[in-house]
Amino acid sequence: MSWVEIVQIWLVAFVTLSLFSFLYKDNPFYRLVEHIFAGLSAGYYVGLIYHSVILQTMIDPMFRNGEWWLIFPGILGALMFSRFSKNYGWISRISLAFVMGNTAGIFLLSELHGKVLPQVGATMRSLNPQHQADGWTGVLLSLLIVVGVVSTLIYFYFSKEHKGVLGGVAKVGIWFIMISFGAHFGYTVMARISLLIGRVQFLIFDFGNSIKELFG
Amino acid sequence: MLEVLKIVAYTILICIPAAVLLYLTFKTDDRRYLFIAVAFYVVFPVVVTISFPTSLSPESITLYEAVDALPDSSTVLLTFDYYASTLAETEPMSRAALHHLFKKDCRVLTVTTIPLGGPTISERVTRDLAEEYDKVYGLDFVNLGYKANYVAVLKGMGSSISAIYPADNSGTPLSEIPMMADIKNYDDIDFIYVVADNGIVEYWISIVQSQYQAQVGCGVTAVMAPKIYAYVSSGQMTGLLGGMKGAAEYEKMVGHPGSATQGMGAQSMAHLFIIVSVISGNLMFFIDRKRGRKRKLS
Asked: What is the pTM of this model?
């Protein structure tokens, strides 16, 4: 292990332990590391955007390949900075309008074509066991999905009071929503524990080895 | 006999701290005892190396089989759409995927839509694995790096990859990279393997899979997994790895146990402790409520 690697590992270990120290209580080490992270991220992001967007996709093609039309998106981007002015802030709306129109156009198609229609299609699967890979089990699962989707949608239907049949179906919807929350919560716990495991593995193996290297 | 003694010793070692720390938590109402308990159940299995069997889920088998069914020397786009904060879950997925792809002599193209850490992680992981399999940069794999505005990137790569990425992550023009000579857009890519920790995975489905009919499989963090199951059952997503468990499953299938497999012991122990905490916390709540009612009545 080289000296550079050891310094890197010790720095990472210091940052990790400083952040974990917040679990005991707020302290200057935690705040120092938090501020360093915020500052470093902002600086790195500015540098990366300048290099990968402004330089690579605007300045280079303009001056090397003569693609001068790129000046227009460049101007639209520069107009965004007018937001800092009280008198001329309205100019940035031109760029924003372009971004909003563009995004709406792209997402209208992709959301409908890529999410809504295929998901509705998958919900209305055939109830014929011969068309199901799992036979009757598949039919039952398809029915369960249909009941879940319909009852959840009815729970979010607010134009009529949830009484009688409508109220009963809405209650079934609540059960489906609760089960879904439970699944999400379980997975979230798993995710957070995984992240802790990652840090513990680093502290025990990488940091531990560097200590051995230095003192053992 | 020795095995039985070992199991008894472990059970005592495992149960006593849980009982003591839960008792202290309920008595003092100080959640820091719970933190100590969780830390113990994560550190202990990592130090002592307690392992639990990893069963395979149908979703991860589907992903493995889809990649395995690709003809040798196919072109695969592997994404590194994750931040450094979720490395524990996502990096083992990328490593296991690269083991599989390099073993099959696939040509690997990597991209990232994450500015902070994405390009560095993709360079480090691919070069590390490429060295193990004697793969040459530019012939067997290429790192395209990061580009801002993921919607424009995902959409634009459908028409021309070189228009979106004029150069690779190191600044070499794509025209000078031999592997990129016959890779122009999604039509030249046989499989897209997304490893992500955020909503970008849904855009790979709604923009790339649905509009360009590309075959997409994914590995996501556990937080993301429940949402993605819907796309697997609708057939839009070819297989899914969910969190560290999914990564451990893929490591098992490719025959390269790594940090995810190693972490499963700690994961199982911590989960057991959390289940015990939830049950005992609820019991304490009902007992306290009953006592409170009795006090009111008397």
From this structure: 0.86
